[in-house]
Amino acid sequence: MFSYSVVGAQLYVGDMIFVMIAFIVLMWLIKLVAWKPITKMMQNRSDKIANDIDSAKDSRTKAAELAQQRQVELDKTREDASGIINTAKQNGQQQRDQIVEDARNEASNLKSSAEKDIEQQRQEALANSRKDVASLSIEIASKIISKQLNEDDQKGLVDSYIEGLGKQK
């Protein structure tokens, strides 16, 4: 056999071949038994990390979309609330104006009604005064003249007297 000498040690070619074959067999066994499961485990872990990163990105995107949607809805709610408040203010103003207008109309109607009542009472008082004046005048005149006037003459006399009073004013 061949032998090589290396600084005081001898290597045998047969031992070298045996060691090389044993090393190759050992590497092949490690590849079958340990390397494939370790590689598979590392690949699975890598896939899980990639999926977790993708899931986190999706969650972040969804959260941003939900935040934007919430902001849009919040703005819309504020606009709706503002619109409701403005409508309520306008309705309140219209009701106030209507109440004031109704009160003015009622006051005007009451004033007009009072004026009519006053005029009617004045006319009644004037008519009663005419009757009273006529009665007194006739009584005085009949005592003065010592004669009784008929009813038509009395009315004519009273009317002319009252017309004379109205012209004096």
Automatic annotation (TrEMBL):
* Cellular localisation: Cell membrane; Endomembrane system
Query: Any one cellular component term from GO for this entry?
Result: proton-transporting ATP synthase complex
Does Cell inner membrane count among this protein's keywords?
Answer: no
Record membrane topology? Single-pass membrane protein
Residues passing through the membrane, by range: 12-35
Keyword annotations of the record: ATP synthesis, Cell membrane, CF(0), Hydrogen ion transport, Ion transport, Membrane, Transmembrane, Transmembrane helix, Transport
Question: Which segments of the protein form a coiled coil according to its record?
Answer: none
As one GO molecular function, the record gives: proton-transporting ATPase activity, rotational mechanism
The main place the protein resides is membrane
**Of which family is this protein a member?**
Belongs to the ATPase B chain family.
Q: How does it assemble?
A: F-type ATPases have 2 components, F(1) - the catalytic core - and F(0) - the membrane proton channel. F(1) has five subunits: alpha(3), beta(3), gamma(1), delta(1), epsilon(1). F(0) has three main subunits: a(1), b(2) and c(10-14). The alpha and beta chains form an alternating ring which encloses part of the gamma chain. F(1) is attached to F(0) by a central stalk formed by the gamma and epsilon chains, while a peripheral stalk is formed by the delta and b chains.
- Biological role: Component of the F(0) channel, it forms part of the peripheral stalk, linking F(1) to F(0).
Tell me what this protein is called: ATP synthase subunit b
For this protein's source organism, the top of the classification is: Bacteria, Bacillati, Bacillota, Bacilli, Lactobacillales
- Could you tell me the gene encoding this protein? atpF
